[in-house]
Description:
Blueprint: E1 7-12, E2 15-22, H1 25-36, H2 41-59, H3 73-77, H4 87-105, E3 115-119, E4 125-126, H5 128-132, E5 135-137, H6 146-158, E6 162-164, E7 170-174, E8 183-188, H7 202-216, E9 221-231, E10 234-243, H8 251-259, H9 261-278, H10 292-300, E11 306-308, H11 314-333
Parallel strand pairs: 2-10, 8-9, 8-11
Antiparallel strand pairs: 1-2, 3-7, 4-7, 5-6, 9-10
Helix pairs in contact: 1-9, 2-9, 4-7, 4-11, 7-8, 7-11, 8-9
Amino acid sequence: MDKDPIIHTHSYQKTRFQYVRFASPGGYHSFVQKQSQKLFIGNQQSLENIVKNAKDRIRTSSDWYGNPSPNSIRDLEEHHYFGKMELLEVIAPKIKKELTRYTDLVQESLLKRPQLSANSKGLGVFSFDRAMMGLYKIPLSKNASPLEKYTHGLKIELGKDKATTVKNTHLYFENKSASKPTLTLTVLAGANANTKGDALYYVGIAVALLTEYLESCHIAVAIDVLIGTSFGVHTLVSAIRVKRFEDPLDTNQLLVLASDPRYFRFNGFKGLIALSDYCGVNIPDTLGKIDDRITSAYMEYTANTLLFNQSYSIDRAVKEVSRILLEYTKKVKTR
Length: 335
């Protein structure tokens, strides 16, 4: 039986800061679904308002959820796949240009991609292709004894009567340093109501491309997505681990949670209501707002993470990529 998630409670700038960690998106989705079934009356009313407002926006083909507009509430409820994958082709060249520029500026071996080398010491993985380049049959000596002749015949039958002139038959990576610091990226999802839906797409894509680059340099990256709100004396945050250090990046999971307006402005809102209810707080009808308190409070109580700020345009996303790379460099140099 799953344990109830722990509420971490702190004081921050004369306000009450509470956050809950989730080890995976699946754990977070299950929590929201379970908590939404037993809301306090005030929070239940807030959830009903979310559904009503969504129906009104769908009726008017609002771009609040991004383009194209959803056709029904069911489209929002069942939205689990990032709808703007084609933006990767638009954003990738600009961000990759920044990554290349950064690599060129770094003179030391900090981010050098490991180079594949060969050795004759048996270290690494045996390369049959390299051995094949100098393969020849082992000749039998004219003065071989009966035992040697028998052994030679046995080797022929087993296909082991060959040797190679190539000495360096084992492959390994040079410049692969196990001492490189890992990097945890923290991303705040969503935006306030006056931000257009399509503007939310950029941050997740930028983080995905940055992660791909860093891990190609053998730097392990973990990613946390924050879904939070501030209202009155309360700041509430769900911190969802969407990528562990040892796991490959699920790009779709990251993009849906971090920067998909269809997800955030419906299921994300349900998550804010569920979290408030779980913390024993009635959320206002406005669901609060996204402000600096959310990230500032979280970063104060969470060590060894870099915040990827909200970026509602390509240029801002590129600047954030550059800033994160520079911050990581400082972190390495001050170890």
